[in-house]
Amino acid sequence: MMNRRYQGQGLPDSPRIAVISNDAIGNFVAATPVMQLLRTNFPGCHMTYFGGTRVSELADASDLFEAWFELHGSHPGAVAQRLTREVGVYDLVVNMERDFVAKFAAMALVGQNGYVSGPCLREDARGDLEYPADPQGDLARDMEWISEEITTKYPFLESGFICEIVCRMAYLKGQVPKYKLPSADPGRDIPDVLISTSASLPEKLWPTSNWVEALSSLKASGVSVGLLGAKPKDQSKYWKGSDLESELVDLQLVEDLRGTLTMPQVVGALALAKSVLTLDNGILHLAVAGGADVGITGQG
Question: What is the pLDDT at residue 62?
């Protein structure tokens, strides 16, 4: 049987559900409302999250799924063998990503009898599986999700919130929940302000002079500042801005917390801080999810 698009069909009792996301903090955060609503729509389901090592600490501590699989970061051939050997197929696959590995995994995981929502390769892997000829399929094909008219074009949406879009394209019913992240006691005193100065793209960075000016002003006012981020030796592998971090530490403008906290402890620390100053990066998503008082820097 050909791969089938999910359009609200009934699933077996205690269905097996797979959720595919990218290997980034923000993507994991965005997946949490989707997984919660899947739980509501399919009580008793067995859910597996497919992500990557960058979010492993969050995935290990989360109670939203029974298992998680390291999809990103390995050779596609090795991933294909592991998918077949370790996880089998699912009744419903919800893929939130458009890259080839995610679409390939969606094709492999849905097997011959399951349903798929989101990007997916055709069974012969020669092109993408077509979306349904219905309003949800039109939304998936549209791609202009930042349009101010999106709720007018698609009345089943109440907002342009990406998590709501994914949920409605998967025909899930009910109110879209808030983010849900595992949180842990950081086990130490937290500075008044926590900052994060690195990002995935250079255009997201804030000039060094701006950071120095802002942090010098805070220091002069007696405000303590802590710097969040990956361990210095790992930061430059995935993110831009590691040189700036080192400069701020050398200038004694920040307390260096990089790599000293687990991800759940970072979530806990963000909730304890008086304020968070960050770029458009993973720390921003964690802070917003935890309800922190967030200030966002901009380029220039």
Answer: 97
